[in-house]
């Protein structure tokens, strides 16, 4: 028994302390992720109805699942939670199997899988995307671990698989083969495109994979429309408020804040100022820079902020809304925090108040929540820049879903990428003009004392040189000249 205990102790020590084997990770990162999924599974079982479990899960797996397909409206709260928990477990297990280091990017990718497990993403439409990324790593002779996070982010195109595989207008077996083939090919193309598009946003958009997914799905939708296959947008969302989900999110936020604060104080590592002064850029990892416990506190605070926003405007906490909240909680490990998110939230709210849409509709609420992806704009350009970008994002995201026909789950990520490419150059221009005017004002201010001194000197009366206190005044030292002796002229034959 002691040998068995020693074996498991060594095994778990190696698993949760991979830095001893030369890998970069965070202490007990995977254990915390598995505990989070266990808590999610507990709530799923709490709200689950076992009498209709099999039928509801089959309905989720074989649905077309393109935007917007709310699994809560299609089935029930318990089934949607169970599907999300199952997808989260698959994502964590894959990362754990390939020993992916626990960073902010890994946490955000896993939480995005959790969020989109409430609408649009399930096990059947996730597998082909993963196989496509695996095929790319095989052909490029690169380890899959290098592209695994792109596979998790890139599963945003999962509705492509479901739309073609379970489309009633196509023969059953042909549609299944066609859907999985398109999914594998899309996953294959996802990696090089994501690596290329990542540098276009100057690190101000956290959802670069969402932009890649949007471009791919726009291409697929355009080809389908060219051959007469119409992709109709759908709006299947729950309109019934779910107090159980509100309670669940408050419990999760309390667990994040409580456990993170307790451990940070115990280890004397509490430093929220480092979180709030973070740049918010994707290459700067909050989890690695500030520690896992401070990051957990930040994730809990963002949970409270977003739930309070949804409740205060009278919106329904349905599948898309709670999925958006989980995605932003994940990106709180990358760069989002309360202070750089509030200007974006205010900008989107102002736009929604002025638009023809009501502020508590699902589409406007999700656009406000997903605007947190542009949090680095607030750090780089101030709260005014965040306000402007949030306003523009709200107007863009409400009119862009027609391009990809709802095949892209990361509709806000697609919009955020476009907004970043359009607005960031203008913000840079305004910043340069402001800096130039400030420099000119400073130069004018520095030259003014010299000009005043010259004016004072010019106003003084002129005094003759020989009348200044009885002494001559010279502008330069006087040179004393020696008298030159006169030359003598001699006659011929005359000597001195």
From TrEMBL:
Pfam families linked: DUF1576
Residue span of region Disordered: 440-477
Keywords recorded for this protein, A-Z: Membrane, Transmembrane, Transmembrane helix
InterPro entries, per the entry: DUF1576
Transmembrane segments: 30-48, 68-91, 98-117, 123-140, 147-166, 172-197, 209-233, 245-265, 304-331, 337-357, 369-389, 409-427
Biased composition (Basic and acidic residues): 444-457
Keyword Transmembrane helix: yes
Protein name: DUF1576 domain-containing protein
Species of origin: Enterococcus entomosocium
Taxonomic lineage: Bacteria, Bacillati, Bacillota, Bacilli, Lactobacillales
